[in-house]
């Protein structure tokens, strides 16, 4: 699809056609949404679809997860007129942080961290990432927010797979994603 083309009728999820299939192998997600971010209307419609289930919900801040969650998270925060918090892989913040170990989608053990001076008890945070594959990264972000007394207002991602971790999130938190189940990998 042309990056300037906008369909005459824009059905929910029309922008998914902008994503490219994985050509690099099993260490990557099965679709790459980065081309979607280059399409102005596609990005706007994707963010609107992600935020739709949270219309009327109390959200105080949006947090995006390192690194591709920064794009969608910042766009969602701007749309909602809320602040944006970056939840980072360990070692990138020069302020006081709290860390949480996790296993990423490739099976590697890592640490996620967040600054300690932004989340106050009761603050309602919408967590955003590009993709929830195994759920490990998102679960670490959830645990960081809750450890600091924040409340997870919801979880939003372009795709939330039905992995064990994805199901754990779906059973516990209000969530939103754009890829219909019939298109998700088996």
TrEMBL record:
Residues 56-168 form the Phosphoribosyltransferase domain. It is found in: Cytoplasm. Its EC number is 2.4.2.7. It catalyses: AMP + diphosphate = 5-phospho-alpha-D-ribose 1-diphosphate + adenine. The keyword Nucleotide-binding does not apply. Keywords: Cytoplasm, Glycosyltransferase, Purine salvage, Transferase. One of its GO terms (molecular function) is adenine phosphoribosyltransferase activity. One of its GO terms (cellular component) is cytoplasm. GO terms for biological process: purine ribonucleoside salvage. InterPro entries: Adenine_PRTase (IPR050120), PRTase-like (IPR029057), PRTase_dom (IPR000836). It comes from the Eukaryota. Its main location: cytoplasm. Pathway: Purine metabolism; AMP biosynthesis via salvage pathway; AMP from adenine: step 1/1. Belongs to the purine/pyrimidine phosphoribosyltransferase family. Homodimer. This is adenine phosphoribosyltransferase. It comes from Ploceus nigricollis. The gene is Apt1.
């Amino acid at each position: 699809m042309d990056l300037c083309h906008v369909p005459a009728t824009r059905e929910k999820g029309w922008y998914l056609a902008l994503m490219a299939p994985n050509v690099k192998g099993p260490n990557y997600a099965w679709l790459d949404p980065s081309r979607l971010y280059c399409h102005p209307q596609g990005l706007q419609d994707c963010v609107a679809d992600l935020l739709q289930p949270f219309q009327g919900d109390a959200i105080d801040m949006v947090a995006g997860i390192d690194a591709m969650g920064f794009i969608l998270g910042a766009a969602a925060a701007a749309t909602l007129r809320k602040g944006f918090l970056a939840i980072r892989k360990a070692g990138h913040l020069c302020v006081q942080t709290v860390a949480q170990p996790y296993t990423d989608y490739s099976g590697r053990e890592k640490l996620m961290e967040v600054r300690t001076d932004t989340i106050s008890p009761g603050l309602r945070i919408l967590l955003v990432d590009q993709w929830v594959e195994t759920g490990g990264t998102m679960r670490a972000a959830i645990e960081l927010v809750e450890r600091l007394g924040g409340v997870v207002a919801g979880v939003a991602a372009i795709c939330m797979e039905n992995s064990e971790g994805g199901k754990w999130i779906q059973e516990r938190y209000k969530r939103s994603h754009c890829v219909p189940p019939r298109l998700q990998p088996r």
